[in-house]
């Protein structure tokens, strides 16, 4: 258990142990879910990345491009059991 002290302004400074546990750093957000009887759950809010950071994420960098005929031949060979992994 980690005890934290509340300042006169109602602020709390999180100890390094808490920051490391939640995987947060200065500037990140945390969220507290308020529960009955003065209790709550605290967790780190996932970081939001710009959509542009996803572009090219699944791009396959082949040595060369393949024609439709080559792709169809490979599919046929796979179905015929001619391809070994």
Q: Could you write a compact summary of the structure shown?
A:
The protein is an alpha+beta fold and 85 residues long. It has helices at residues 16-22, 68-79; strands spanning 30-35, 39-44. The two termini are 52 Å apart.
Overall pLDDT score: 87
* Count of helical regions: 2
Distance between the termini: 52 Å
Order of helices and strands: HEEH
Low-confidence stretches: none
Going by helix content, strand content and strand pairing, the class is: alpha+beta
Main pleated sheet: 2 strands, antiparallel
Fraction of residues in helices?
Answer: 10-25%
Structural shape: elongated
* Alpha carbon gyration radius: 26 Å
Structure description:
With 85 residues, the protein is of the alpha+beta class. The chain is built from 2 helices and 2 strands; from the N terminus they run αββα. The protein has a two-stranded antiparallel sheet. A hairpin with a 3-residue loop joins strand 1 and strand 2.
Layout of helices and strands, plus pairs?
Elements: H1 16-22, E1 30-35, E2 39-44, H2 68-79
Antiparallel strand pairs: 1-2
């Amino acid at each position: 258990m980690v005890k934290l002290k509340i300042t006169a302004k109602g602020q709390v400074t999180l100890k390094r142990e808490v920051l490391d546990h939640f995987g947060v750093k200065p500037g990140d957000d945390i969220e507290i879910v308020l529960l009955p009887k003065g209790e709550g759950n605290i967790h780190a809010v996932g970081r939001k990345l710009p959509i542009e950071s996803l572009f090219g994420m699944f791009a396959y960098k082949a040595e060369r491009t393949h024609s439709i005929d080559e792709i169809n031949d490979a599919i046929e060979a796979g179905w015929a059991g001619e391809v070994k992994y």
